[in-house]
Design a protein that fits this description.
Shape: globular
Number of strands: 16
Structural class: alpha/beta
Radius of gyration: 17 Å
Largest sheet: 7 strands, mixed
């Protein structure tokens, strides 16, 4: 419902990506209406093809760019075009943040591999190839979503990649069984040049209705730590039991 935009604004969201596989469910009019509703309450929307969204915080200019695997948005499968967009953002902002909706879905897709992923025969892109290429082009932080489960973190050229944040909210629409019900709020502290300083996984769990709450058992911390050790064993990241993430010595 359109009035939900005000709820997201009220709880502190500033920028929302509209680049995902459901943004055209109600065709172009629905896509444009979603953006209008986001902007009407004072948030920023990003994800239209060719779009770089700029905002400023404490004197730092931050660029956000939304990607998916669809040509209606910025397509992650067009590496050259995507790199040019990142490079443009890098020239005009202090920090460049990539939001990318891609990858296969479900508990079978919890691991991250350097290969093209498919879901129901649909090309969902190569998240490792894309993420590293965007950092090569000037991105400072890559935030993945789409698989519906948390995935590993990686550090590439001192830039953090989150391969999937999981589901944050899915009121009576999404399964919350097992890892599908584990989520996170990811806090990231970057140096002025965009390099990773430290971070924190604030663990979230979804109830059977898809409503999030803080998880006092820190399940997502253990899950992401184990996935990172498995999928990116050479990543110089250390996770403590409270979710704090530091560069490994």
């Amino acid at each position: 419902p359109p009035h939900y935009a005000g709820l997201f604004k009220a709880v502190g969201f500033d920028v929302l990506s509209v680049a995902n596989n459901h943004s055209w469910d109600f065709y172009e009019q629905g896509f444009n209406d979603t953006i209008a509703n986001i902007e009407q309450v004072g948030m920023l929307a990003t994800g239209r093809r060719g779009e770089i969204t700029y905002t400023e915080a404490n004197g730092i200019t931050v660029a956000f760019i939304g990607f998916s695997y669809f040509d209606d948005h910025n397509s992650m499968n067009e590496l050259g075009r995507s790199a040019n967009l990142i490079n443009e953002a890098h020239q005009n902002a202090d920090v460049v943040v990539v939001s990318v909706h891609a990858g296969a879905e479900g508990t079978d897709a919890i691991h991250t591999y350097d290969r093209t992923e498919y879901f129901y025969s649909e090309n969902r892109g190569n998240m490792v190839l894309f993420s590293r290429a965007m950092i090569d082009a000037g991105a400072d932080l890559v935030l993945g979503h789409g698989p519906h489960v948390p995935r590993a973190l990686d550090l590439y050229k001192d830039r953090l990649i989150a391969y999937s944040l999981g589901n944050f909210l899915g009121y009576r629409t999404l399964s919350t069984v097992g890892a599908l019900g584990k989520s996170m709020i990811l806090q990231v502290q970057l140096a002025p040049d965009g390099t990773f300083q430290m971070g924190r996984i604030i663990p979230v769990v979804l109830d059977r209705n898809g409503i999030p709450k803080i998880d006092d058992y820190f399940q997502t911390v253990a899950l992401v730590r184990d996935l990172t050790r498995s999928d990116f064993p050479h990543a110089p990241l250390h996770f403590d039991d409270k979710g704090y993430i530091h560069r490994a010595q």
